[in-house]
Amino acid sequence: MIQNPLLKPFLARDESVPFDEIQVEHYLPALEAAIAQAQDKLSALRSNPAPAGFENTIVALEESSELVDRIASIYGNLEVAHADDAHQAIAKEFYPKLSSFSSDVSLDSQIFARVKAVHDRRQELPLNPEQAKLLEKTYLSFTRNGALLDEKGKTRLREIDLELSILSPKFSENVLKATNAFELWITDSKELAGLPDSALEAAAHAAEQKGGKGQWLFTLQAPSYMPLVTYADNRELREKAWRAYGSKSFGDAHDNQETILRTVTLKHERAKLLGFETHAAYVLAERMAKNAKTVHEFMTGILKVSKNAAARDLDEVRTFARETAGITEVKPWDLSYFSEKLKEQKYAFNEEQLRPYFKLENVVAGVFEHAKRLYGLQFKEANEVKPYHPDVKTYEVLDAEGCYLSFFYTDFFPRKTKKPGAWMTSFREQGIWSGTVKRPHVSIVCNFTQPTPTKPSLLTYDEVRTLFHEFGHALHGMLSQCSYRSLGGTQVYWDFVELPSQIMENWVGEKESLDLFARHYETGEPIPAELVEKIKRAQKFQSGWMSLRQLQFGYLDMAWHSTDPTQIQDVDAFEVRATAETRLIEKIPGTNASCSFSHIFAGGYSAGYYSYKWAEVLDADAFEFFKEKGLFDPEVARSFRVNILEKGGTEHPMELYKKFRGREPDATALLRRDGLI
User: Fold this and answer.
1) Residues 6+ apart with CB under 8 A from 69
2) 3-class secondary structure, 577
3) Which residues are 533's β-sheet partners?
């Protein structure tokens, strides 16, 4: 055990994870040893003869699981970012052990008695606001995880949590396997008419890597799939790819239907055990929205405007498809294709014209420059650190005075060991570790267009927005200035966590920002002003359709988590009913969104997908403030940093927002930005 790198102190100057030393066989023994260590600390906490106080109970509890949390974050982050079959296989043991430990703590009556004793005396204690928040969060963590249940209830809750800890990674693994299972091989170049050179070269390179020289290989990874359905003139090819993408883990060898039904059944039962009507009610009690009624009113308030605008968007595409191609019935696999053609006609440009100006390395330098101008940050490559994969780059983040702030990982390209999508995570949260406040280790993981033998990685405009989005989350983690790690960084209400990420996307639509990094990868020429103007004019293109699409996911999520599961017999039929109000085009038989909806069935967004639209209101209103004062105005940036990015979950998010903006958000800011009013 002493040789297990997960149990030894991390000796690098920045205490970065020694990925090169860690093997799959280290995880389970390390977790077991860490749990045993934590249990010893908890035993000391239980037997402490001193009266329960903030330091000897709340802080002691916070510190007891440090090693467990560290090992769990390393395993969990790699399980989604870089996990081979052996790594995935131990998830069936790793997560249940973690769940059992968590249940051991939250259902321990002696520990809860001490927590409750401190909570009952909270008005008498000399606590600062952050300490008061930690006490409240700790107490709620116990009550929301079964501390008030009788023994029978506690036993059942433990069983539920154990099973859910298996179902979530199972869902995720199925989606990854279904994604990797699809391969579309093309041998005749005539079938690929319409596709840009960048997509053709990437497909040829992918085929050659698998021994298919002279052929083209397309997959369901976004950088491969999106150009195919957006540009391929071959309608049958678009349909084949679209159907494969839309049917991932639905009725195939990696089917998720039973996993979904079991998951929602267990979550509903869990919520009822804890005194809530539904899982949505349980989740929303700890959100800005507070309850399902507020969420539904919020989405309904946007739905009418979005649906009317989306209907106009769809009619415009249908008319265009009929007049230019004789297509009398537009199908889902036609939408991206004809929308792109329509946009090209209306605004005299297409997305591919932008790629040469978005070389990945330049965009990364650009996002770093934004962080420098807004917050004074510096990023220095840490080449001496060995990452978990050769594609990963590592950086030290310094403030304007050169003081160390964070360690930062970037992981940008798809691979078979990585889940689809993009996300930010931490290998170490900011806050107290071993009695000392330590700085965070933050990572962003994406699936961007890869370089080819003749071209560097040239991003789409959407990929640039995604990078800025995830970097916004990263800033929230990096700039945290909290004492306790369970309150630091992104440890905030879920419907607030997207504000720092979504606001960063706004800079990508401004010429002043694009001029900082958008340069032609061959000539070095800056992006032409007329092209930037076309981007700005096109930003509101089909904004109604995009808004309706997000609402459709929000309605689907809320339906799954606010319906009694005994009323759900068929996954697909339920999805049809749940999304009926948000549909303007037929649902294609054989396809299903729920079965690959990892956000809600394998991530943290169950009863929370509405958060994206909720946070859009916040970010639209907040960015108006920047535009009023200046995109890089130091006072506005300082206020956003001090009141939003540094505070984590130490105060209620609405109070933090009001400190930044001087008032509550203006709900119409989003509709103005999207051109819907």
Assistant:
1) none
2) helix
3) none
Contact 216, 204 (CB under 8 A): yes
Residues 6+ apart with CB under 8 A from 121: none
Contact call for residues 107 and 157 (beta carbons, < 8 A): yes
For residue 24 the two structure tokens come to 């799959």
Q: Which two tokens stand for residue 503?
A: 């606001």
Percent of the chain with pLDDT over 90: 94
Number of H helices, E strands in the chain: 27, 9
Using alpha carbons only, give the angle 414, 420, 421 rounded to the nearest 5 degrees. 105
Q: What is the pLDDT of residues 317-338, one digit of tens each?
A: 999 999 999 999 999 999 999 9
Calpha distance 384→647 (Å, rounded): 32
3-state SS class at 392: coil
Burial (0-12, 13-18, 19+ Cβ within 10 Å), 258: exposed
Q: Are 496 and 615 in contact (CB under 8 A)?
A: yes
**Across the chain, what does the average pLDDT equal?**
96
SS3 assignment, position 217: strand
Banded pLDDT at 38 (limits 50, 70, 90): very high
DSSP character at residue 496: T
Q: Is the separation of the CB atoms in 138 and 75 below 8 Å?
A: no
Pairing of strands 378-381, 393-398: antiparallel
Question: Is 610 within 8 Å of 299 (Cβ atoms)?
Answer: yes
Residues above pLDDT 70, as percent of the chain: 100
Confidence of residue 430 (pLDDT cuts 50, 70, 90): very high
Element housing 432 (H / E): strand 431-433
pLDDT at residue number 1: 55
Element (H, E) at 536: helix 529-538
The two tokens of residue 522 are 């061959």
Residue 14 has pLDDT above 80, yes or no: no
Token readout for 432 is: 């107290």
How far is it, in rounded angstroms, from Cα 8 to Cα 34?
11
**First CA to last CA across the chain, in angstroms?**
63
The residues that are catalytic are: 470
- The pLDDT of residue 10: 83
The domain locations on the chain are 19-106+108-148, 182-246, 257-354+543-609, 356-526
Q: Which CATH number fits domain 257-354+543-609: 1.10.357.20, 3.40.980.10, 3.30.310.50, 1.10.1370.10?
A: 1.10.1370.10
The torsion angles phi and psi of 471, rounded to 5 degrees, stand at -65, -35
**With bands split at pLDDT 50, 70 and 90, how would you rate the model's confidence at 44?**
very high
Residue 446, helix vs strand vs coil: coil
Q: What is the pLDDT of residue 2?
A: 61
Rounded distance, CA 495 to CA 524, Å? 40
Give the lowest-confidence range in 11-15, 71-75, 613-617, 664-668. Answer: 11-15
pLDDT at 263 over 70: yes
Q: One fold for both 19-106+108-148 and 257-354+543-609? A: no
CATH class as words, domain 356-526: mainly alpha
Q: Got the DSSP string for 62-73?
A: HHHTHHHHHHHH
Q: What integer pLDDT is reported at residue 9 of this predicted model?
A: 86
- Separation in Å, CA 615 to CA 330, 352, 548: 32, 29, 16
19-106+108-148: CATH topology is Glutathione S-transferase Yfyf (Class Pi); Chain A, domain 2 (1.20.1050)
Q: Is 405 helix (H, G, I), strand (E, B) or coil?
A: strand
